[in-house]
Specification:
Structural class: alpha/beta
Radius of gyration: 21 Å
Helix content: 40-55%
Number of strands: 15
Bound molecules: pyridoxal-5'-phosphate
Strand order of the largest sheet: 3-4-14-9-10-13
Strand content: 15-25%
Largest sheet: 6 strands, mixed
Number of helices: 22
Distance between the termini: 43 Å
């Protein structure tokens, strides 16, 4: 049964999966959604014995229905290989009353690798299927992790270029070093004088500029996106929730059919939306706990039904969640409106005009599976320290937010349902904040001295991704104002 894709704002429909992946964002500014959410067609018993790669095939084939089995298996086998430092790909670690699903064993040690290892293969396969001759230019806004993971995936992939915009001063030192040392002749990195929302809004504006699109086409280029607005990012993220559930059954932690909760440290709402899709496919999930940092726009939304981005943007120690416009929420809004694109479009127009919108009581009721929570900087640090002192396990600052929110949820509700916490980054990526949480103020100690101390404290080997930037050459130093992003793209491409 084939699935087609349509824009959440109603302007486009009837696309195949490969066409939706190639476009990234719909022409009307909407996001692509499948016309229905497919059900898993293998049993949990069968899934329990499967490798990550086989699970990925069983899940992704249901969404990417215009890919042949051979094409999809090729993409999966090349993505989830020895780039990951464990054959499990996404191991589950039981600690302090929860299951931490470690999604950071790929190339760039953040969960973005789970989807961005495969996106380049999905994209080039899609280009071939659709007889695309143009060079594909991937434009990406990053709050710190997507940029590196996307470049690692697309570096030197024939027929592609990648341009990444990150907020100057808004990412960790390790994140910045990872990006500015990126190799590959087709990669470009730009620090913008603004925050992540500025970067994301700027990228969306470039996508929406028809005249610019024509200038690009005249030179043989076409744009696509590696952000989680691309359905080719979202679908691979559904896989690890199915995999985690099957592993819990396989390991005898739960019985087949038992419900679990899932807690996700959330920014752009992509990762938690993938968990929701897994539930819609039939995975026994009860509550989805959406964890925010001080930028708690989603917490307020789930409390009140009003999304209001008119507030101060706060820089925190979990920078990949410093976001006030969570793009993928649009997909949930659309679903909650019974897939009425008109309702969704009006709300998104409200958001861009007035900075806020309010959903109806019916839409809010539709979202009953979600609950929001947030952790302050102090609560996050205390949680990292507590988990370390209780168990010796060291979590990063984003996972810390999720863990703190889950602990508070459990105390508030008494809900004892087994819970998976998405562990989205290696603690090494945020060495300074993590070590500070455990040991107290570090002053301005050298970043790599901190890395070595964290190694001593955690007993976890320093990942290759960190070792390789210790002495790497800086290759990118471009900066631009938030109103100059389009000119910068033109300059990089030599238009
Ligand atoms: C991107 C990111 C998040 C937020 O994920 P979304 O899908 O944007 O909600 C959380 N933690 C880390 C480490 C990330 O890189």
């Amino acid at each position: 049964m084939s699935i087609s894709y349509q824009s959440t704002r109603g302007g486009e429909s009837g696309l195949t999966a490969s066409q939706a992946i190639l476009k990234g964002l719909a022409d009307d500014g909407g996001l692509f959604m499948p016309d229905r959410i497919p059900s898993l067609d293998v049993s949990i018993e069968e899934l329990a014995g499967m490798s990550y790669q086989e699970t990925a095939y069983q899940v992704m084939k249901l969404f990417l229905t215009d890919f042949t089995e051979e094409e999809l298996r090729y993409c999966i086998d090349h993505a989830y290989d020895s780039k990951f430092d464990t054959e499990e790909i996404a191991p589950l670690v039981k600690a302090d009353g929860a299951y931490y699903l470690e999604l950071f064993h790929g190339n760039t040690i953040a969960f973005k690798d789970m989807a961005l290892s495969i996106l380049p293969y999905l994209m080039t396969t899609s280009a071939r299927k659709n007889h695309i001759e143009n060079e594909i230019v991937i434009l990406t806004a990053t709050s710190g992790d997507t940029g590196k993971a996307a470049m690692a995936g697309f570096a030197d992939v024939p027929g592609t270029r990648i341009i990444v915009f990150y907020p100057k001063g808004g990412v960790s030192r390790i994140q910045e070093l990872q990006m500015v040392t990126q190799k590959g002749d087709n990669t470009a990195v730009v620090a913008i004088h603004g925050n992540f929302d500025d970067a994301q809004t700027g990228v969306k504006q470039i996508f929406g500029d028809k005249a610019f699109g024509e200038r690009l086409a005249a030179k043989g280029f076409q744009l696509s996106s590696a952000n989680s607005i691309n359905i080719g990012r979202l679908v691979p993220q559904v896989v690890y929730y199915v995999y985690a559930y099957a592993k819990l059954v396989e390991n005898g932690e739960i019985q087949n059919g038992d419900v679990i909760n899932i807690t996700v440290p959330t920014g752009n709402f992509g990762n938690i939306l993938a968990a929701y899709l897994a539930k819609q496919m039939g995975l026994p999930v009860k509550t989805l706990i959406c964890a925010s940092n001080d930028n708690k726009v989603l917490y307020d939304f789930f409390q009140t039904g009003t999304y209001d981005r008119k507030r101060e943007f706060i820089l925190t120690s979990s920078p990949s969640m410093d976001i006030l416009i969570s793009s993928n929420l649009e997909r949930l809004i659309y679903l909650s409106a019974g897939c009425d694109a008109g309702v969704n479009r009006e709300m998104m127009e409200e958001l861009s005009k007035n900075g806020a919108y309010q959903i109806t009581g019916e839409m809010k009721a539709f979202m009953k599976d979600f609950t929001g929570g947030y952790a302050t900087e102090a609560e996050n640090a205390a949680e990292i320290k507590k988990v370390y002192e209780d168990t010796g396990y060291v979590i990063d600052t984003h996972t810390g937010v999720a863990s703190a929110v889950y602990r508070a949820y459990k105390e508030r509700t008494g809900d004892q349902t087994p819970t998976v916490i998405a562990s989205t980054a290696s603690p090494y990526k945020f060495s300074h904040s993590v070590l500070e949480a455990i040991q107290g103020s570090l002053g301005d100690r050298d970043e790599f001295a901190v890395v070595d101390e964290l190694n001593r404290v955690s007993g976890v080997t320093v990942p290759n991704a960190v070792e390789e930037i210790r002495h790497a050459e800086i290759r990118h130093n471009r900066e631009c104002g938030r109103d100059n992003m389009e000119d910068t793209v033109a300059e990089i491409l030599g238009l």
